[in-house]
Amino acid sequence: xxxxxxxxxxxxxxxxxxxxxxxxxxxxxxxxxxxxxxxxxxxxxxxxxxxxxxxxxxxxxxxxxxxxxxxxxxxxxxxxxxxxxxxxxxxxxxxxxxxxxxxxxxxxxxxxxxxxxxxxxxxxxxxxxxxxxxxxxxxxxxxxxxxxxxxxxxxxxxxxxxxxxxxxxxxxxxxxxxxxxxxxxxxxxxxxxxxxxxxxxxxxxxxxxxxxxxxxxxxx
Length: 220
What we know:
Layout: E1 3-14, E2 17-29, E3 34-38, H1 45-52, E4 60-65, E5 68-69, H2 75-85, E6 86-89, H3 101-111, H4 115-128, H5 144-156, E7 162-166, H6 174-191, E8 194-198, H7 202-207, E9 210-215, E10 218-219
Parallel strand pairs: 3-8, 3-9, 6-7, 7-8
Antiparallel strand pairs: 1-2, 1-4, 4-5, 9-10
Helix pairs in contact: 3-4, 3-5, 5-6
């Protein structure tokens, strides 16, 4: 098991009262498994992803990824978790416009201080993503689908066992979305990667190994 969410609760303040979003979420992901996280907008899909990513703290409950209890990590340990144990891809790629595709992919390895190994891996990932020969193009010179492929390569540069994807095809046309989805499934299979993907795309969700539907604060 790569990741496990146990009894996760999260609420936010709404005026003077708490607004419960997650109410005891339980979820597990295995190596090589792609799980679709579905549910209507505002139900808490992004909140759950952010808690697993260590970008936010739950009110209670645990998140365990690759043997680390994320909810207990602080400071440098939490930074290393975000840099090396999980990768995250959003609907919008968030590439740095002044850097080339290769340079964007390399950023996490520079933070991890493994630039030489990172350079070799970055080139391999870009080739695997179908971007061989496009390494030195800037984001403005790439299509939307190519930019998202760069973002996926960047998320995987430090070889994390877990990839979180928040509507990764939501900003793409149907054919490009299918291509990006195929890349994610291929990476999960070849690299033993666990993928949790929030999506409204019913076709994409149906292609995943299973679906976890978030409703009324719990996963069904």
